[in-house]
Hints:
By secondary structure, the chain is an alpha/beta fold. It has helices spanning 4-10, 39-42, 85-99, 127-150, 163-173, 191-195, 205-214, 216-225, 231-242, 251-260, 267-281, 314-317, 330-336, 338-356, 370-390, and strands at 18-24, 28-36, 53-61, 72-76, 102-106, 156-161, 180-184, 296-300, 322-326.
Amino acid sequence: xxxxxxxxxxxxxxxxxxxxxxxxxxxxxxxxxxxxxxxxxxxxxxxxxxxxxxxxxxxxxxxxxxxxxxxxxxxxxxxxxxxxxxxxxxxxxxxxxxxxxxxxxxxxxxxxxxxxxxxxxxxxxxxxxxxxxxxxxxxxxxxxxxxxxxxxxxxxxxxxxxxxxxxxxxxxxxxxxxxxxxxxxxxxxxxxxxxxxxxxxxxxxxxxxxxxxxxxxxxxxxxxxxxxxxxxxxxxxxxxxxxxxxxxxxxxxxxxxxxxxxxxxxxxxxxxxxxxxxxxxxxxxxxxxxxxxxxxxxxxxxxxxxxxxxxxxxxxxxxxxxxxxxxxxxxxxxxxxxxxxxxxxxxxxxxxxxxxxxxxxxxxxxxxxxxxxxxxxxxxxxxxxxxxxxx
Length: 391
């Protein structure tokens, strides 16, 4: 999925999307539908049976403020965002009410209606499940973008918060046409989240270390395949965590040290994890969006979950993209900056509309003023009088 051409071939433009239910409200409609995840066709054994079907909701206004434009944005879920209600309430309904922007809310694989029976809450069983989730979301988003085009929607955009923001970046970069991309509270790679940020404390490093050392041939083969654009930063991170270990320690010594210091992250496992995550999530390893200038990213200045220090800045990878900052941490930004995220979505769609549709989403058809209406009325009366005099 690194190349746009490959993704285009994996998802045909007429990929089937089903609408199962239509719910009418006073000023909008909610459509409920599903599609079979395209990844199931290629890697059926990797996708849990419960995740084979991708469920989604569509919020449509009954009146389009910028008709004939019909702006639509896909919303991908952040960590722990099961079902549709949170995105529908915090983002999609305000977008519809304030700006007449339609939304598609896609359920993540491994979440909500797609959660495996033996999975507890949002706790994925394997590191590889993250990559399966990403592969599903990229192809499902492409299928939904094709559906949007068939149904006459546009301009189109894609967004998400935290993990959803990074997934939106990957999916948007693989779409073969200009697209508004709005990643919120994410950055250029997911590796820092799992190896440096707050969430790194939840990783079972001892288990990963034992798996890492269990098969030397496999380990060496994988290391040859890994490419990390953040090579220097990864080495520095590895050196930082390697200070508690000596090169002369064997596997048993390391295991003993880990048991006595359970909160220490083993350098070997951490570097390996960093390399794998960079290989599979770093934006520089994927296609660049057709028009990076349409992207608007929102980041938090004090984000302890998604660290940016030592990483390539997003504008260096996506030249022309815009980065906005909110002066708070990750959780505070989610709680108190939803209006900033919505503004970024609107601005990205507006950029797309002006550049590729030749008109604005924000300039609505103006109502005639009272003076203009009076002048028009006088003109009609005068015209009637002239007609009578001629008769």
